[in-house]
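Hi R.,

Here's the chain you asked about this morning:
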Amino acid sequence: MTAGGAAVRSAHLPVMFVQVMEGLRVVEDGTYLDGTFGRGGHARGVLQRLGAGGRLLLMDKDPEAIATAEREFGKDPRVSIRRGSFADLARWDAAADGLDGILFDLGVSSPQLDVAERGFSFGKDGPLDMRMDPDSGQSAAQWLANASEQDIADVLWTYGEERMSRRIARSIVARRAQQPIERTGDLAQLIASAMPRGKQEIHPATRSFQAIRIHINRELADLEAGLDAAHAALKPHARLAVISFHSLEDRIVKRFIAKHAKAPPANRRLPEAEVFVPTLRAIGDAQKADSAETAANPRARSAVLRVAEKLAEAA
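And here is the predicted structure, written out as tokens:
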């Protein structure tokens, strides 16, 4: 999300709202989980479609998101709220009887980017934090102060696909030996100075900030655990909708759906495997936002939506 008017206009626009609602196919008396409440754009859409017997479960790591959920939905008897990662949804008793639909809207939310004090944005100087849950784990500043040069380079390459990962890691280690790196502006400037000069299509710190954020919040590990938990919690014919904003996330979602929907290729050199029984089916192909939405909401440009349906158990 860029600074300025575009960010303000799009801050609370739920990405691919129509497609998500169509994908979830909400029924009035169903039970649904929004595992990434954010500021509640998709949750409002689900709740509007639920009747008196329906239920909506809301989760988020971010205490500010949970405060918004409590303020706007806390008095609705159909709504239950829990602070935490969707990776732990199986531990929530409210989900124990099964779910008719689950939504994961991955990545950082626009309000998180817009608040400099959260430390997510290289465009807004603030404390170098980056934690979605500021009460848990290391901040980005703490990690950068102690991680080895090799570990930093590995994170930048693995999660950001940053080609200059080693050079940037070397610059970070050299700078921290002189003074701590505690501000987003300092880190962004340091990364920019380590990059070769030339035409840059994006800010030179974009990939590095993304990589550090993914690492600090264990986003890919949480996604894998959350998908497994969602698969177990979905009732027959229930829907899973996942919006991703990064190729690494989308690849995990795509492979997860394929793993449960398609038999693995046969290998004549291996013993005959057990008969494959699919438990999911993909609903259409990956979807992207149309031009009208991306013009109104720049965050939607990189969004990819995948929807899958839980199959009925074999008799």
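One quick note: Residues 1-11 have pLDDT under 50 and may be disordered.

Cheers,
M.
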